[in-house]
TrEMBL record:
Pfam families: ABC_tran, NIL. InterPro entries: AAA+_ATPase (IPR003593), ABC_transporter-like_ATP-bd (IPR003439), ABC_transporter-like_CS (IPR017871), ACT-like_dom_sf (IPR045865), MetN_ABC (IPR041701), MetN_ABC_transporter-like (IPR050086), NIL_domain (IPR018449), P-loop_NTPase (IPR027417). This is ATP-binding cassette domain-containing protein. Signal peptide: none annotated. Gene3D superfamilies: 3.30.70.260, P-loop containing nucleotide triphosphate hydrolases. It comes from Actinomadura darangshiensis.
Length: 334
């Protein structure tokens, strides 16, 4: 649905060059929620602005719904861009217009006739749960309600793709949860493909099917969230499940175990302890719901060096768990 290849964007000015996006490849499948996570200055907003051509990339390709956006001009490009909605951190509402007036605005720009416009505005307000506030002005509604207006406005042109630039960053946790639930619901009901950027782990945890971590204009990791969580050394896994710093002791094996889906129901720690008569020491861990799936990470210590635990480690891996050995020096690399 969204396909980005080797995207590069350099800002030039006053003898200074900033490579904001430095060769990003990204595929977002139809109907998927994809999150890009990164610190301030990583290039997230620039990436998003290159996807809807608010910024023209220096290099690369942006293909949405099979159309190469950089090859389009004039009316064709305008129509393609109408198929891409966008929401922002600071909502960007017009203070002089009511809630309904704000949602009507893009429809006016598109030249939708008055009667049809009124009908569409009513539908959109219903969709985001704001029917009762149609006549209110932005100054009189809450942040969460403002973002609902932003979402309704972004959906006015019936886009297939929604881009979200830190849409929940200025909201409190409870309101964030309700906006994320709304986005998830719209994604499911309308089959909307969502590309969102955020610096909040919680956003990824709640609604993303896939995610990428962006740093200095590049993706350092990217893929389906459950897969990233099980990948050794994943920054996303560390962020979602902070474990104590690994301090392997001599004569022991320190491991981090990630389990998803079916494996979460299995009492594998007690099974391991029973089968091999070992005392398993649990040093830390957490189980969370990520993208509607139960995922957990545990830090465990087993007596004996890694080579002595070969059978135990194989048992855990055969049970469908991802196992990372934190003191692998003496174990054959695998
Ligand atoms: N219009 C611009 N002109 C020049 N440099 C820019 C411009 N916009 C962004 N940059 C630079 O590009 C880099 C990436 O900026 P960008 O806004 O994409 O980061 P971000 O990941 O969205 O950060 P934040 O989380 O703070 O929003 C930064 O170094 C920034 O200073
Ligand atoms: Mg930004």
């Amino acid at each position: 649905m969204i396909q980005i290849e080797k995207l590069r964007k350099v800002y030039r000015g006053r003898g200074r060059e900033v490579t904001a996006v430095d060769g990003v490849d990204l595929t977002v499948a139809e109907g998927e929620v994809f999150g890009v996570l990164g610190r301030s200055g990583a290039g997230k907003s620039t990436l998003l602005r290159c996807v809807n051509l608010l910024e023209r990339p220096d290099e690369g390709r942006v293909v949405i719904g099979g159309r190469d956006l950089l090859a389009l001009r004039g009316g064709e490009l305008r129509r393609a861009r109408q198929g891409i909605g966008m929401i922002h951190q600071h909502f960007g509402l017009l203070g002089s217009r009511t809630v309904a007036g704000n949602v009507a605005f893009p429809l006016e720009v598109m030249g939708v006739p008055r009667a049809e416009r009124a009908k569409r505005v009513a539908e959109l307000l219903e969709l985001v749960g704001l029917t009762e506030h149609a006549g209110a002005y932005p100054a009189r509604i809450s942040g969460g309600q403002k973002q609902r207006v932003g979402i309704a406005r972004a959906l006015a042109g019936r886009p297939r793709v929604l881009l979200s630039d830190e849409a929940t960053s200025s909201l409190d946790p409870e309101t964030t949860a309700s906006i994320l639930a709304l986005l998830r619901d719209l994604n499911r009901r309308l089959g909307l493909t969502v590309l969102l950027i955020t610096h909040e782990m919680d956003v990824v945890k709640r609604i993303c099917d896939s995610a990428a971590v962006m740093r200095d204009g590049r993706f350092t990791e990217s893929g389906p969230v459950p897969e990233l969580l099980a990948r050794p050394g994943s920054e996303l896994a560390r962020g979602l499940f902070p474990l104590p710093p690994a301090e392997p002791r001599d004569g022991s094996t320190l491991i981090e175990v990630t389990f998803t889906g079916g494996a979460t129901g299995e009492p594998f720690v007690s099974a391991l302890a029973r089968k091999y008569s070992v005392d398993v020491n649990i040093l830390g861990g957490a189980v969370e719901t990520v993208g509607g799936e139960r995922v957990g990470r545990l830090q465990l210590e087993l007596p004996g060096d890694p080579p002595q635990n070969a059978a135990q480690l194989a048992f855990l891996r055969e049970s469908g768990l991802a196992v990372e050995i934190k003191n692998p020096d003496r174990e054959d690399a695998r």
